[in-house]
Amino acid sequence: MAYKNLSELTTSRQTWNIKVKVIRMWDSINPSTDELISIDMILMDDHGDTMHATIWKDMTDTYKSKINEGSVYVFSNCKVVQSTKYRPINNEIKITFAYNTKVKEVKGTSDNFSDYYFEFATKYTLEERKEKEKQCSDVIGLLTHMKPIESKITKRNTATDIREIEIMIPEGDKIRVTLWERLAHHLSEDVIGHQTVVIVTSTMVQKFYGLSLNSTSATRLYTNLDIPETWDLLHSHSTEEILPKMMEIDKSTQGTMEEQMFYRRRTLQELTGIRHDNPTYQDFVFTTIATIDRLEENIQWWYMSCDVCNKICTKESDSYYCSYCNKYPERATPRYRIRLQISDHTATISCTLFDEEAKRMLNTSVSFLMDSLAGKSEEVPKVIQQLCGRRLIFRFKLNNKNLTLGMQNYAVKKTFVPDDKLEMQYLVDKEKYLKTFIIVSNRI
What we know:
10 helices; single chain; five-stranded mixed barrel
């Protein structure tokens, strides 16, 4: 039987015969339903060329027991189709199995192929891929920070484990990676204090306070893998060891949604009185319930941000300049900055909704709204104006200006829609607590 090299495959023929090694194999899971979508593989031929292959859900029972990662096979009667989303490698086509695809293992030839295959992304490549579903990204870097495992509430209102890590990629940039579910348990805390090179494959790139990566069902995580890229990274930092450290968990994001809504609940008046000299609140994160009275006047609802640091850029001729980075960034991106006046029964303050939370609340991007205004970007879109009058729970993280100078403009980290029954119960419980406290105090 004649085999074709992977580089020769096209979508023009009905079927193909290939001889390949299964480099990686995984179950692709729908994160919204936890249901199996397909079994997927990265295949490599004896020329070192690679291609993504998919066995769809209705055929997995036929083929799963016949194929093992690391083995070499002849696959006959394969189809080749366009690859449109979640590509684990940079190839516009992929292989799919049909009902008549034949599988034959080839013994004793695995050593003729590489054991691993990665396409490590640079910072520039990651920037190009942010918020796009087309291409997954592999990264390699020195582990710099790691958080303990946390429990997060998903959109399906179920708890799942996550672990956040930070790695320094070869260019020197630091990237945050969120490892979900089983991968959260892959890294042991024994790595703390020991120089560790981490490889994370098949991640999706997000723009969240800089670049961040999310693991997928295709993601693999390797530590100190014996490949040239690992040794290159270690040798480049041989004079200055970079040792990973533990980071603290943001306790305000832990627990159920209800628990998060009442995390360190304060009135606005209490909030404005909090200062650095109170050691009880080390993270200075609080929630409050308040009504949006109006949009602050003379403050534009968007700004152009530097794609490196996310700080504001100023227009100079035909370019944008970032004073924080002291350079002209390659790209500047419009981001939300919505200044609100909010009030409760105790006080009135200003607060600011920034990009990620504003995008979540409005369910649309800055770019879309700007396009809808047909060049009149100084006007406030109706969807933003409609925020006025809404009563919400705000989660704030106080900064140095709030804590030392008493500045009453607070950054909104997250908002929640209040539940009237829970709010009533909170007030009842608070009153009971105060009565008990008074009684105990009087006895003392």
